[in-house]
Amino acid sequence: MTEPLLECEDIVKVFPGVRALDGVGLRLTAGSVHALLGENGAGKSTLIKVITGVHAPDGGRLLRDGEELRLRSPLDATRAGIGVVHQERNLISGFSVAENITLQDPPSRRGLIDRKAMTDPALRCLAELGLDLDPHRPVRELSVAQQQLVEIAKALYTESRVLLLDEPTASLSPLEAERLFDVVRRLAERGTCVVFVSHKLEEVFAVCDTVTVLRDGRSVLSSAPLAEHTQDDVVTLMVGRAHTAQDMTPRTVDTAAPPALSLTGLATAAGHQDVSLDVRPGEIVGLYGLVGAGRSELVKAVLGLERVTAGEIRVFGERARIGSPREALHRYGIGYLTENRKEEGVFLEQPVLRNITVTVWKKIARAFGDISSRQEREIAETLIERLGIRVSGLEQHAGELSGGNQQKVSLAKWLAADTRLLIVDEPTVGVDVRTKHAFHELLWNLAREGLPILLISSDLGEMITLADRVVVMAGRRIRGEVTGDHDYDRMSGQIIRIIHDRSPSTVPVRKGAA
Q1: In this structure, what are the phi and psi dihedrals at residue 421, rounded to the nearest 5 degrees?
Q2: CA distance readout (Å), 63 to 32, 51, 102, 120
Q3: 13 pairs with which residues across the strands?
Q4: In terms of domains, do 240 and 271 share one?
Q5: Helix axes of 433-448 and 231-239: crossing angle, nearest 10 degrees
Q6: Where are the alpha helices (DSSP H) in 291-432?
Q7: Do 311 and 215 share a structural domain?
């Protein structure tokens, strides 16, 4: 057996009232890409903090090259060759690329920082990543993906032998993520051990070779070859049971029913041409495509956020000219669950109560415009129970909730307004497997109750689990449609073939309402 670069041996970490880690084991070997998986609360973040010197373990020990390693601070971890790139960037925006890369040990001359001498090592680290960046460029001018690669360049500069990547693709497009994977593979080839923490199992299986799974602070799978396990195996280990669409209460769609939403020959100022689709009551229609396909821009045109230049929109048979999301909600009953929950979905500094009831204030206002606090609380409490939102109280700020619970609060405000049609854009980005499954069940059951749902998701597994039909977009046009039977192999194969066949004339396209 290959000797590990770094080993966690029976690590225990206890906080008041919580045993966050309970005998966790982990072996990290040179040249491997190691997946560290688990739901929110499983102990991943705590383990990362132990490995990077933020927390001292209360039991067990860390071993580096077979010798015990005691870390008193993150600086100790850096000196021991352990680097980390957090989900939230850790760069100084006003500093240059070179200044950020060399920040932890800047070159100096006669006791003063030598800014000119920063350039060569920064260029060397950037070159190792295949990154063509001006080392004198301020970091604030870089894209999110470029900033993330600068973070990795920092780790190269400090000669990290173990590099932890925490949710590295959460803010990246698929194309940017693929570039990151190339960098990860290159690092592994040069002997670095990369620890890859992600909720996206398709990415884990694309780039990792070994895996550790945590559940409730314990290792339920430790440093095992990933090739010996399927995605379903890993999900079962993470949550304690398997989960598929077949687990959910069966539902059927009346395909003869008039559409709740119908787009016919739609063209927009954003570049869409001849877009036609329909969504019926109780139906989940998926919009799938690569970055740039125009899915989010299409629904924004429906909501009045992009200009419609041709064609028509009908909502429950009524021709609609929608000028704003407010009009979409109050006149046509359309709710929009945005992909950007932190900036557009919830008010982070406001209580959960206010977030849920903001869409119905006008409805429950009394004679002189003041809001009925009793009705507010009744509405919020009903939806918190219905959606299983975990809060300490109605006055808890939304920003204090987990990502999954924030998304549920965002959904709750639309349900409070008696939404008749729901548009959902990337509903489970950045949430753990159990929360994702709970959200799937929510959407599934809403459709079973008759709510029509238009679903945008870049998660192919999510699309196949939920959608009754998948409409495939590329180049801001509809290229084809796949009937949903929740068979991953069949549906994914057809969807991928449609995406790569860009000729509309060769793919049958659904036109207008049936």
Answers
A1: -150, 130
A2: 17, 10, 27, 34
A3: 21
A4: no
A5: 100
A6: 295-302, 325-332, 352-357, 361-364, 373-387, 403-416
A7: no
Across 29-161, where does the E strand assignment appear?
Answer: 33-37, 59-64, 67-69, 82-85, 108-109, 112-113
Tell me the per-residue pLDDT of 14-24, one tens digit each, with 9 for 90 and over.
Answer: 887 678 899 99
Please write the tens of the pLDDT for every residue from 82-95. Answer: 988 887 677 888 89
433 within domain boundaries: no
Which residues have CB under 8 Å from 411's CB, separation 6+? 337, 387, 442
The pLDDT value given to residue 341: 58
CATH number at residue 460: 3.40.50.300
The domain tally of the chain equals: 2
Q: Can you tell me the mean pLDDT for 157-174?
A: 83
175 plus 304 within the same structural domain: no
One domain for residues 142 and 75: yes
Nearest to 343 by CA among 388, 423, 295, 399: 399
Share of the chain above pLDDT 90, in %: 40
Is the pTM of the predicted complex or chain greater than 0.85?
Answer: no
* pLDDT value of position 505: 33
Determine phi and psi for 10, rounding to 5 degrees.
55, 50
Determine the average pLDDT of the residues in 385-407.
Answer: 82
Q: How many Cβ atoms sit within 10 Å of the Cβ of residue 379?
A: 23
How far is it, in rounded angstroms, from Cα 92 to Cα 21?
A: 32
440 or 386: which leads in pLDDT: 440
Residue 70's domain spans which residues?
A: 6-244
Give pLDDT, residue 510: 35
